[in-house]
């Protein structure tokens, strides 16, 4: 722990007592003050640092910032701060650098790999107060969003423009957080992931430097100008710097949207259908696999009545003519793989319910055993290897005797194997998830298609990219963050 050496205006170090008793829960503040932050005043029950704009907070708020939606639980942040502008992000970064204090960018905390969880004394920097949508160019299909803007908020604002932002992880995550994790989700098969949908990023480095990865004001669809620093930041998980705005590529809202579900006797019939749809180049917008266990979960949690069999949830976008053609071709392929008739979402309400149920699957899984811990893998393989990867995972899951299932964005070759973890099963679960990651790597794929490396997948990163590439990645990190203050303990061990 660093020594407490900084100036305290209004509250002298010697007079910590009144400050501590000011708080119902002194634990958090004691931790906050045991690290080097400039506590300059106390107002409204909150201790403020750097001119009262950024607040150190209660134990409850530190707890809230200590984890995401995954099972990873480590330490609480020493302090949480809310910069109100890009300049203030830079100021906080400079302050943390001056005191060699680790910094963790915090978006909406919906991550699945423990990315926001502190591994040592650190400042959690909540970026949600920066929440402007600017620079909307309707003719060019692009817009700029700050870190507090979530994908739902952006699409709500765009609703009357005829444009939308399609990357959809289900959760209402911040768009800059989605860039930081390289997120994708259900629409990626047609519209791509964050990688294909970010044109430029404004970032703040650990030393407070503010820059644009593609150069200020750049928003062109392509560029060969030097290194692609924008892509470097996508999936960087807060280890290179703060993303303080993202220039995003927009798409035209589809003229027609049609959603349906189709059941199959076996999971392999569903997977083969997905593979053949892609091999026929049908421009399907969503193609989501839910195995029997996943269907049980959505039926229970979202009050649905699908037959307890493997399913594909499908969506088609286009004109009446083109969706009609896509539907006919898809139905034919499904039929050849013993798929059922399509059950259509007839109304907007049914459509919303169907996709909300899919998006809530993680909570539906957790509801199998309320209060339990759930873990999910995130393997992604070339589509032609999907059947082998999924049958391997299904066999392992079966052998393990664990409660779990498989779901996936199968159009991208990406699937999640989820399990409920009982107290004495940690080792078993670890070996299962590791084996699934390794198999994906062996098949030419990755241990993480969209959630990131975070904490849990660090050992697999080396296996996936190799020692030399890992070394180069570390050297790149070092050139952005020489003191290793940006989100330490994530991505690299
Ligand atoms: C129910 C459910 C379902 C899904 C998912 C979550 C949940 C709860 N996710 C995962 C999650 O929504 C996704 O990882 C988001 O991109 C995380 O965005 P947050 O803003 O919540 O980042 P969060 O605050 O959780 O941070 C995640 C990481 O990014 C860093 N970070 C956040 N904001 C940053 C910024 N502005 N600058 C620099 N670093 C920053 C953090 O430091 C951390 O390392 C997902 N994902 C997916 O890709 N596909 C999916 O299908 C799903 N599905
Ligand atoms: C199942 C979860 C792990 C979240 C996710 O990525 C999804 O629902 O697709
Ligand atoms: Mn997913």
From TrEMBL:
Domain called FAD-binding PCMH-type: residue spans: 73-253
InterPro entries linked to this entry: FAD-bd_oxidored_4_C, FAD-bd_PCMH, FAD-bd_PCMH-like_sf, FAD-bd_PCMH_sub2, FAD-linked_Oxase-like_C, Oxid_FAD_bind_N, Vanillyl_alc_oxidase_C-sub2
Record's keyword annotation contains Oxidoreductase: yes
CC cofactor: FAD
Record's protein name: D-lactate dehydrogenase (cytochrome)
Protein EC: 1.1.2.4
Domain of life: Eukaryota
Pfam families hit by this protein: FAD-oxidase_C, FAD_binding_4
Enzyme class: oxidoreductase
UniProt family annotation: Belongs to the FAD-binding oxidoreductase/transferase type 4 family.
Native species: Clavelina lepadiformis
Compartment(s) where it occurs, according to its Swiss-Prot or TrEMBL record: Mitochondrion
UniProt KW keywords: FAD, Flavoprotein, Mitochondrion, Oxidoreductase, Transit peptide
């Amino acid at each position: 722990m660093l020594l407490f050496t900084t100036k305290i205006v209004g509250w002298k170090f010697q007079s910590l007592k009144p400050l501590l008793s000011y708080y119902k829960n002194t634990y958090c503040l004691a931790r906050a003050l045991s690290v080097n932050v400039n506590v300059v005043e106390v107002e409204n029950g909150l201790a403020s640092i750097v001119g009262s704009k950024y607040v150190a907070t209660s134990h409850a708020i530190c707890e809230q910032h200590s984890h995401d939606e995954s099972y990873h639980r480590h330490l609480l942040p020493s302090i949480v701060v809310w910069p109100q502008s890009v300049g203030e992000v830079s100021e906080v970064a400079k302050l943390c650098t001056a005191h060699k204090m680790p910094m963790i960018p915090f978006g909406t905390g919906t991550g699945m790999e423990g990315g926001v969880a502190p591994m040592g004394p650190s400042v959690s920097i909540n970026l949600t107060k920066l929440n402007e949508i600017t620079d909307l160019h309707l003719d060019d299909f692009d817009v700029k969003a700050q870190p507090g803007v979530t994908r739902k908020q952006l699409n709500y604002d765009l609703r009357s423009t005829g444009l939308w932002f399609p990357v959809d992880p289900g959760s209402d995550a911040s768009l800059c957080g989605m860039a930081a994790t390289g997120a994708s989700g259900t629409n990626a098969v047609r519209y791509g992931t964050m990688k294909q949908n970010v044109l430029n990023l404004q970032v703040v480095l650990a030393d407070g430097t503010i820059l644009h990865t593609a150069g200020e004001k750049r928003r062109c669809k392509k560029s060969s100008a030097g290194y692609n620093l924008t892509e470097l930041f996508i999936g960087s998980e807060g280890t290179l710097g703060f993303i303080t705005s993202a220039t995003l590529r927009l798409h035209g809202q589809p003229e027609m949207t049609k959603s349906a579900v189709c059941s199959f006797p076996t999971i392999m019939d569903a997977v083969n259908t997905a593979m053949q749809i892609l091999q026929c180049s049908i421009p399907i917008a969503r193609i989501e696999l839910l195995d029997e266990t996943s269907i049980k979960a959505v039926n229970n949690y979202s009050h649905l009545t699908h037959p307890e069999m493997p399913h594909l949830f499908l969506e088609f976008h286009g004109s009446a003519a083109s969706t009609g053609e896509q539907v006919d071709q898809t139905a034919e392929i499904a039929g050849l793989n013993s798929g059922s008739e399509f059950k259509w979402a007839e109304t907007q309400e049914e459509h919303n319910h169907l996709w909300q149920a899919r998006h809530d699957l993680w909570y539906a899984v957790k509801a199998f055993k309320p209060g339990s811990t759930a873990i999910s893998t995130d393997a992604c393989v070339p589509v032609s290897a999907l059947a082998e990867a999924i049958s391997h995972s299904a066999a392992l899951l079966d052998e393990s005797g664990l409660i779990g299932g498989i779901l996936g964005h199968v159009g991208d070759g990406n699937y999640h194997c989820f399990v409920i973890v009982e107290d004495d099963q940690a080792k078993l679960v670890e070996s299962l998830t590791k084996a699934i990651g390794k198999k994906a790597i062996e098949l030419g794929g990755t241990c993480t298609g969209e959630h990131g490396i975070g904490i849990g997948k660090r050992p697999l990163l080396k296996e996936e990219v190799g020692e030399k590439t890992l070394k180069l990645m570390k050297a790149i990190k070092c050139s952005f963050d020489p003191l290793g203050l940006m989100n330490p303990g994530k991505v690299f061990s």
